[in-house]
Amino acid sequence: MSLANRILTCAIRTNYIRNHGSRSACYIHKSFQHAPSISLYRDSRFNFARNLSSQSSDEKIHTIIRETEKPVGSSNKHEFQAETRMLLDIVARSLYSENEVFVRELISNASDALEKFRYTIHTAGENEKNYENQDRALEIHIGTDKQGMQLIIQDTGIGMTEEELINNLGTIARSGSKHFLEQIKEKGAAVQNSSNIIGQFGVGFYSAFMVADRVDVYTKSSKVGSPGLRWSSDGSGSYEIQEAENVAYGTKIVIHLKPECREYADEDRIRAVIKKYSNFVGSSIYLNGKQANVIQPVWLMEPKDVTLEQHTEFYRFIGNTFDAPRFVLHYKTDVPLSIRALLYFPEGKPGLFEMSRDADIGVALYTRKILIQSKTANLLPKWLRFVKGVVDSEDIPLNLSRELLQNSGLIKKLSTVLTSRVLRYLQDRAVKQPADYEAFYKEYGLFLKEGIVTTQDQTEREEIAKLLRYESSKSPDTKISLSEYCSRVGLEQKVIYYLCAPSRVLAESSPYYEALKKKDVEVLFCYEPHDEIVLMQLGMFNGKNVTSAEKEMRQDNADVSDLGEGSLRKSEIDEIVPWIKEKLSGKVSDVKITNRLDSHPCVITVDEMGAARHFIRTQSHQMPEANRYALLQPQFEINPRHTIIKKLHKLKTSDPELGELLTRQLFVNAMVAAGLAEDPRTLLNNMNELLSKALEKH
Length: 698
Hints:
Blueprint: H1 3-20, H2 22-32, H3 48-53, E1 70-71, E2 76-79, H4 82-95, H5 101-122, E3 139-145, E4 150-155, H6 162-169, H7 176-186, E5 212-220, E6 228-233, E7 238-245, E8 250-257, H8 267-278, E9 284-287, E10 290-291, H9 308-319, E11 325-333, E12 339-346, H10 352-355, E13 362-367, E14 370-373, E15 388-392, H11 408-432, H12 434-454, H13 458-465, E16 470-472, E17 475-480, H14 482-489, E18 495-500, H15 504-508, H16 511-518, E19 524-526, H17 531-538, E20 540-541, E21 544-548, H18 549-555, H19 570-583, E22 590-593, E23 602-605, H20 609-618, H21 625-632, E24 635-638, H22 643-654, H23 656-673, H24 684-695
Parallel strand pairs: 3-9, 13-15, 18-19, 18-21, 22-24
Antiparallel strand pairs: 1-7, 2-7, 3-4, 4-8, 5-6, 5-8, 6-7, 9-10, 11-12, 12-15, 13-14, 16-17, 16-19, 20-21, 23-24
């Protein structure tokens, strides 16, 4: 084996170990021991080893990238127009938020070139003989060269003539793809698979200058007799075009990277960018000889053809998670918008970050299988941030960089359509898979309630409310929906009653439930503090007012002229009511009698009990006690049939000091029962005084 061959063997083996490990590289060394001449191995320094090693690797290595192109003759220099130079500077420095998107843009251009060739050959008819090498595989190949600080992207698509090079690469903001489609439409031809052609603006190619010192393009048109060409520019204001030998059909882009952008010569970095943006491009993408886009765009498949295993794999891929989807919503529609959607509802519990409203929406936006945004804020409302998946729409208006959405009206319409579809799907799961839905609701019900509180659309509120589940006074072992409640009470009852309490025991023993129970009225029991805010915000459902039992008691104007046997007389009531009001001055807005209580001596009512409790929990500590009572305006209602109230009437005269302590304690107890006591521990002083005074009598 010659010295030259040994040196070349060592160089290739070293580079291969860097990318594939030492085991496969051993085969290269053995192969070169029998090599008769170094001239047989003049292919690309970073691709030849991969081709040769395919005999010893489980994964087949396949690449078309070669360093065979050779410019010939003189080059023609062209100047960018002044406006073009300015636009080029904007594209290279300001248009894209992340410089990694240049990979997406160049892959998109390569994909368009493949689709153009596929369409051209399919529709060539009698002109078929005008195109060369029609049976070639339509692929995209990418090669990384760390040592040379190069990134190469090559396609086997339609290629370009010199005129097309000048028009497409010499004129910024002129889209060759868009022009191609316009030509087809002018001829009146049907544009088959036109949705696979991505380019719109004609600026994507220039994104390469974000990372490149120089870009070389080798291209050869598929038209018979077309020469190979080399286009080259450093992006400073001019470009050169020159004929070249040994150029393959299609287009090859060689990016000479800036030193600070050397990361894009790393295979793992490029693989990550492909996975993020271009994993679902219709044609195969090979990175250093290995196929990089192996996951199928499941959302474009027919729903009935996708297996549970495929859904699980895809869900884990796009969600970057290890659990499985609980529910799968896979659908497509063309009215009112073209939408291909695949949405997953997680099986696992939401994480702490997902519970925060700062979490991103987990739905990725694609157009024609190219990623636009991995987390798209406006596609679904914030309360659906736990949903993961993909939405692909050809109707989505994009800005020049293809990173931001335009036309807020259309995007809002798209969001409305998607949200409505999600709600109908969950409502359907609640009927067809009640056990699974119950498990989902247990983990994610809080998000649904957030939706009711945050949305401004009453129709949407009521659609979300169909998904809520609560225990009721007549169904202790199961939770029911608001729709079930409405069907039970019938049309004659115009109100949906609810009562918030920490537990069922406390709800059933609540003074606010007592009167409704006596009337045999069904009441929904809510055990979470936020439930009363949710139902208060809902306000109405299915034509019925949603009202708390506490508010119903305050607004009740029942006749109290006949309080029944065992009650204080009217004259006694007229004496005790103003006396109690005096003793509770500064605390209550009014004192009145009620006949809605049986076992309880008194009760506190306010206009909006849910809002009042929320205020006590979150803000009341910031203001003086007097101001707090002035804001709440509590109304103290007493039961004139109760033993304690009748005893209080006697104490008013016989022992006014004990009577006052008892009155204050009754008020405190009622505030605690209403959930309006800021801290019950502060109420002990009055209780101890009352006990001490009572014990003096014994």
